[in-house]
UniProtKB/TrEMBL annotation:
Name of the protein described by the UniProt record: Chlorophyll a-b binding protein, chloroplastic
Keyword set, alphabetical order: Chlorophyll, Chloroplast, Chromophore, Photosynthesis, Plastid
Matches recorded under InterPro entries: Chloro_AB-bd_pln, Chloroa_b-bind
One Gene Ontology term from the biological process aspect of the record: photosynthesis, light harvesting
Species: Triparma retinervis
Domain of life: Eukaryota
Record's function text: The light-harvesting complex (LHC) functions as a light receptor, it captures and delivers excitation energy to photosystems with which it is closely associated. Energy is transferred from the carotenoid and chlorophyll C (or B) to chlorophyll A and the photosynthetic reaction centers where it is used to synthesize ATP and reducing power.
Ranges where the record places region Disordered: 21-45
Amino acid sequence: TVVATANAFMSPMTVRSASRALMSEVETPEAASPDAEPVAPPAPVLPTSSTALPFMDRPMALTGELAGDVGFDPLGFAKDKETLFKMREAEVKHARLAMLAAAGWPISELLDGGLAKIFNAPALVDSTDRVPSLLNGGLGKVSPLYWGIVIGLAAAIDLYGVSRQGNAGYIPGDFGFDPLGLYPKSPVERKEMQLKEIKNGRLAMIAVVGFAIQEAVKGVGVVDETPFFFKPITATLGPYFDHLTNSGYLN
């Protein structure tokens, strides 16, 4: 009892636990100063070889920044970033025009004859359903008023695009035209849409050249040369089944 009473008047001993001792020995990282400049992420390492042509070095101006850039420039046209910018601007314009032409070419061959009868005007397609073109001829039959409207509209669009090139964040072909709000907000999704556009545009440029060469060589319109792409299945397979029926194969 005496010992317990005496202990009650003594100051308690400070016991340092092992866990607290270990915590005190761990170095805590210093908090970043609010005035410190943010550290920029490391730049991506660019490949030394071209993705499209692995046996060639990657062109220095093709850094993969633009959609559809796979390092394809075997003749070295894009010598610097400024030249690459101008060439991409031209490529986007030709791609969009080719996509319109790839759709308009067969549509005109399908509808021109009927529209000409409705408006009591001469048809622009020839007797083999070929549209006027540089190789097919017949461009003189197109009204000069049409050429004037097309050239004037193209010049207006081009001048508008030139006026936007000084805007911050401008990319080639960015006319700010999105009436339906389809352009994504995310940078990753925007890059995907740009990639889809340039791929479809490049394919359309090849298709339009193929249309012109095919009609010049074959002498018939593409809608007649490959009707299963442009006409109902009944119009393409109907004569085949009629032939089988008339031959006695189908009863």
